[in-house]
Amino acid sequence: MTEPFALYVHVPWCRHICPYCDFNVHAAATPPEDEYVAALVAEMEAHAPWHGRGAKSVYVGGGTPSLFSPAAIARMLGAVARVFGIVDGAEITLEANPGTVDRETLAGYRAAGVNRLSLGAQSFDARHLRTLGRDHGRDDTRAAVEAARDAGFANVSLDVIFAVPGETAADWERDLAATIALAPEHVSAYALTYEERTPFHAWRASGRLRPVDDDTEATMAEAAATILPAAGYARYEISSFARPGFAARHNASYWDGSDYLGVGAGAHSFSRRPAPGRRWMNERLPARYLAAVAASGTAVGTEEHLTEAQARAEFCFSGLRRTIGVDADAFRARFGVELATAFPHVAGLVADGLVETAGGRVRLTERGRRFADTVAATFV
After folding, report:
1. Residue 213: what pLDDT?
2. CB of 234 within 8 A of CB of 244?
3. 70-83 and 103-112 are packed helices; what angle lies between their axes, rounded to 10 degrees?
4. Are 164 and 174 in contact (CB under 8 A)?
5. At how many degrees (to 10) do helices 103-112 and 138-150 cross?
6. Which residue in 55, 69, 77, 208 has the most C-beta neighbors within 10 A?
7. What's the whole-model pTM score?
8. Whether 343 contacts 379, CB under 8 Å
């Protein structure tokens, strides 16, 4: 295969671990950036089938990639260009936490080739930031956005979380107003989830945390779906809103069944070849990842060859996350069967008002978005 792909680079360190987070993160005040970047480069060089295809997007996520210096990010992106190539106009994103960046470091990242900054604001309410275990304040987010603009970033995204224990619908609307006031190009608005193996999950089970009730959470979700579009942010995915031209291109590869390569500790990858698809995940522990790359160049910890049924299901429930829905022509081209034939229950979902068909696509209705997980489960 020669078409461009999406590249994800994982940086697994944070200054501390938030109690709701279930990502592959490890606490470190000073992560080993030189050793780790060298391993990332070695891993890239070992993925020979991907060489020269060109990265259509690069997403440096974590963890907190902004703990790495601009020089380290520049070395890594230089290797991406040398080994894979970077498509002209590619979206190159760096995740950052407020309080870890300033105008100087952001100017360095911009000079290194980063053209999109994703800031983990999460909330502008000091109480909710404390509940979430964040180590920044609301003023840090404002300062980070201002510094990003000064450094030349024209594409800034803010992540915000709703349904935090103790949060009211009015609190969430104030967070939305504070987000809009900073005029980011993109907003990701997520409902808090209680993932297994996190302190939040245990605290909910023990009664230490009391979740927001379902009705209030639904009200908050509806507020985001109303307030953000009214401010010029079109909803293009269940949790994603953007000004025209600023939808996250990298994430689209996860939703439309495109190939993506992940490098770094715990990074995930997917390839459509061999058909119907293969996915794999790197060793999660940084020490094991570094040792594996040193020994063999790659660090695959687990892999799975999809069945035809799995591949069809994933194509559909991933595509349904987007407001444009699943492209029936693309489904037929990939799997050699009509979507309605592979999933005859879609007619029932239409009758129930959960999905609709239009323009050769199957997409969630407004009602369907409220039950998105339930609808997705019907394809499994």
Report:
1. 97
2. yes
3. 10
4. no
5. 50
6. 55
7. 0.97
8. yes
Residue 55 to residue 260: CA distance in whole angstroms: 9
162-215: per-residue pLDDT in tens?
999 999 999 999 999 999 999 999 999 999 999 999 999 999 999 999 999 999
pLDDT per residue as tens digits for the range 75-134: 999 999 999 999 999 999 999 999 999 999 999 999 999 999 999 999 999 999 999 999
Question: Structurally, what CATH architecture does the domain formed by 309-377 represent?
Answer: Orthogonal Bundle (1.10)
**Position 326, amino acid:** V
What's the Cα-to-Cα distance from 373 to each of 174, 238, 252, 369, 370, rounded to whole Å? 27, 11, 19, 8, 8
- What pLDDT is stored for residue 29 in this prediction? 85
Question: Which residues lie closer than 8 Å to 257 by C-beta, 6 or more apart?
Answer: 272, 314, 315, 318, 319, 330, 334
Token code pair at residue 241? 């809103």
Inform me whether the pLDDT recorded for 1 exceeds 90: no
Tell me which architecture the domain covering 5-253 has in CATH: Alpha-Beta Barrel (3.20)
Domain ranges of the chain: 5-253, 309-377
